[in-house]
Amino acid sequence: MELLLCVLMVVLGGLQLQASSTDRSFRIDYVNNCFLKDGARFRYISGSIHYFRVPPAYWKDRLLKMYMSGLNAVQIYVPWNYHEPQPGVYNFSGDRDLEKFLNLVAELDLLVILRPGPYICAEWEMGGLPSWLLTKPDIALRTTDSDYLQAMDRWLGVLLPKIKPHLYHNGGNIISVQVENEYGSYYACDYNYMRHLLGVFRASLGEEVVLFTTDGTSASELKCGTLQGLYATVDFGPEENVTEAFMLQRLYEPKGPLVNSEFYTGWLDYWGEAHSTKSAKKVANSLQKILEMGANVNMYMFQGGTNFGYWSGADYKDGYKPITTSYDYDAPLSEAGDPTDKLYIIRSVISKFQELPAGPMPPPTPKFAYGYVSVPQRVALLDVLAILSPSLPFYSSYPITFEALKQAHGFMLYRTLLPQEIVESALLSASRNGVHDLAYVLLNGEYQGTLERDRVNGINISGQLGDTLDLVVESMGRINFGANDSDFKGLIHNITLGTSILSDWIIYPLDIDTAVAHAWPPTAQSSSGHTGPAFYTGTFTTPGISEDSYLKLPGWTKGQVWINGFNLGRFWPVRGPQQTLYVPGSFLSGSAINTVVVLELQEAPDNPKVLFVSRPLLNVTYNYTHKDRK
Ligand SMILES: *[C@@H]1O[C@H](CO)[C@@H](O)[C@H](O)[C@H]1NC(C)=O
Ligand SMILES: *[C@@H]1O[C@H](CO)[C@@H](O)[C@H](O)[C@H]1NC(C)=O
Ligand SMILES: *[C@@H]1O[C@H](CO)[C@@H](O)[C@H](O)[C@H]1NC(C)=O
Ligand SMILES: *[C@@H]1O[C@H](CO)[C@@H](O)[C@H](O)[C@H]1NC(C)=O
Ligand SMILES: *[C@@H]1O[C@H](CO)[C@@H](O)[C@H](O)[C@H]1NC(C)=O
Ligand SMILES: *[C@@H]1O[C@H](CO)[C@@H](O)[C@H](O)[C@H]1NC(C)=O
Ligand SMILES: *[C@@H]1O[C@H](CO)[C@@H](O)[C@H](O)[C@H]1NC(C)=O
């Protein structure tokens, strides 16, 4: 009986599939140069949103605002490193619930352009690739390197079957799927790698789905990024000549729809550089030209969001350039998901080409200035090593990297003893610029200064034979774009003191987040002082209120901050341009006591406190040579 039922269901399932695939289709029309949805001419006006940069409590709010802006699609990336934190260990739950997000998008009647990588750039840690790939130090990422392919195939073997039922012709809302990402900007230009990916995507998703590539509008990028069998699209911002940009797409796709897969509404920020903005008027004018040409467009970003925790990436251009915690991007929806003037201008352009949905745009989310909160309880990082690094430390003659010790991000402590007395002073320095990316130096627990990749290669210290030398080394995010994304972290090369190479290191991987979320505040005695890596803890209540806010760190220097165990990200007000961290209301409790933990790495203010304000401040940059050489 059971067997019969099963057979019957298979038959019915087959019939259903048959029916749906004739009803629902999404194709390229090479005669009329457009997409065809269910056989009819179709053009998408889409916006990028990253579920991994928006708290799940706000997914629906942001998507509704995108729908009310007149968009008919959203474009999303899938970060491999977010979903496979360790080899073979997958996480699709909580704020990583990709299918829940896809279902919400469908409920709001929006289509999806999916970009599952496996490399995504996105100004995301290592461009979305897992750092554990680097446990094989000479791995050639994004090539036919066999270890890379093996890991990638295993990941795609988990991801793509989850995607398949969400494809448009299977009854879902994914209309197209991008393969790789701006591959033409990578050094390798390995067509066999792209061919391999094409094979994996086809084998898993079938022949019907539209697969495409995206590259910048230069001949060299398009040459290495495109492949027969993948529809070639381009990306460009409002400063480019729209006609000329699409002429480059036409070199590779003489027929078919014009597509700008990343039309830049704004731009990213680097620590220590000016805040990026793009004029709403220029964005609107260029968007109008794109739409007048009948082209399809995705606005990157429509909602930028936040690089919570340690997820921001970095670029490498005349030196290492880490990206800020805020990914506001000067996008039409702000970091906190609020409609901006830019959104309304864009919406009015869209209204000239397709009907806007009826009804009002949802208002900005309420914000609350909770005011000052004292964080008086200080405990030096070195005093809670046993909590932060519960396993046994590693011993090594010479420094080893984060990757070798399977530390994905955050901090590791490198400890050794001074091999000789230094009477005057001697230069402690990183050979070959080998500090990735910052090292906070302590001698017998006293803060001495900071080494910084590409900026501060050495500091003078003096001390006695046998003094304890500690380097708390911080990753500021792995490089996400360009020629080489094998960006190892920690002490990459030796540390020298005067003329001798330091040896006999004790290395402590630090798991600060687990400690802060589960074992805080530590019972260790509070310590005095205000320099060097230390935690400052305080509590506050917000009777009945749990609205969004922004956290300012007046007088603080550099660090990381948690609220109720949620890692809000990095702060660095002495560099800027970001001066406030976004605090989603969903991280706060209106009924219980809220806990703030600040990890200050360099110098805390006297009478340490933080300040909750109701407006963001993202555009105040300081010249580092003046302000933060402490
Ligand atoms: C998955 O990730 C969430 C955070 O996004 C975390 O709370 C949860 O513990 C993770 N699950 C597993 C099994 O690691
Ligand atoms: C854009 O390029 C086209 C073709 O080269 C040219 O005719 C047009 O004048 C350019 N537009 C602008 C605004 O420069
Ligand atoms: C270290 O001290 C030496 C000798 O006093 C001095 O020349 C040098 O500039 C100092 N280096 C740094 C990085 O402070
Ligand atoms: C990438 O960087 C790593 C580490 O700095 C280096 O070993 C490797 O040779 C580089 N690869 C390329 C292709 O430049
Ligand atoms: C450190 O120096 C030692 C001795 O010269 C050398 O064997 C070792 O490879 C170096 N290690 C690194 C990480 O550069
Ligand atoms: C910074 O941004 C605010 C709005 O948040 C704006 O009023 C101000 O003019 C900006 N300042 C600079 C220097 O651009
Ligand atoms: C920072 O100050 C130095 C020294 O005055 C100057 O040369 C440099 O151009 C300044 N940089 C910025 C970004 O203002």
TrEMBL record:
<feature type="domain" description="Glycoside hydrolase 35 catalytic">
    <location>
        <begin position="35"/>
        <end position="352"/>
    </location>
</feature>
<dbReference type="GO" id="GO:0005975">
    <property type="term" value="P:carbohydrate metabolic process"/>
</dbReference>
<comment type="similarity">
    <text>Belongs to the glycosyl hydrolase 35 family.</text>
</comment>
<dbReference type="Pfam" id="PF21317">
    <property type="entry name" value="BetaGal_ABD_1"/>
</dbReference>
<dbReference type="InterPro" id="IPR001944">
    <property type="entry name" value="Glycoside_Hdrlase_35"/>
</dbReference>
<dbReference type="InterPro" id="IPR031330">
    <property type="entry name" value="Gly_Hdrlase_35_cat"/>
</dbReference>
<dbReference type="Pfam" id="PF01301">
    <property type="entry name" value="Glyco_hydro_35"/>
</dbReference>
<dbReference type="InterPro" id="IPR026283">
    <property type="entry name" value="B-gal_1-like"/>
</dbReference>
<protein>
    <submittedName>
        <fullName>Beta-galactosidase-1 isoform X1</fullName>
    </submittedName>
</protein>
<feature type="domain" description="Beta-galactosidase 1-like first all-beta">
    <location>
        <begin position="399"/>
        <end position="511"/>
    </location>
</feature>
<keyword id="KW-0732">Signal</keyword>
<dbReference type="GO" id="GO:0004565">
    <property type="term" value="F:beta-galactosidase activity"/>
</dbReference>
<keyword id="KW-0378">Hydrolase</keyword>
<dbReference type="InterPro" id="IPR048913">
    <property type="entry name" value="BetaGal_gal-bd"/>
</dbReference>
<feature type="domain" description="Beta-galactosidase galactose-binding">
    <location>
        <begin position="533"/>
        <end position="589"/>
    </location>
</feature>
<keyword id="KW-0325">Glycoprotein</keyword>
<feature type="signal peptide">
    <location>
        <begin position="1"/>
        <end position="21"/>
    </location>
</feature>
<dbReference type="InterPro" id="IPR048912">
    <property type="entry name" value="BetaGal1-like_ABD1"/>
</dbReference>
<dbReference type="Pfam" id="PF21467">
    <property type="entry name" value="BetaGal_gal-bd"/>
</dbReference>
<feature type="active site" description="Nucleophile">
    <location>
        <position position="262"/>
    </location>
</feature>
<dbReference type="InterPro" id="IPR008979">
    <property type="entry name" value="Galactose-bd-like_sf"/>
</dbReference>
<keyword id="KW-0326">Glycosidase</keyword>
<feature type="active site" description="Proton donor">
    <location>
        <position position="182"/>
    </location>
</feature>
<dbReference type="InterPro" id="IPR017853">
    <property type="entry name" value="GH"/>
</dbReference>
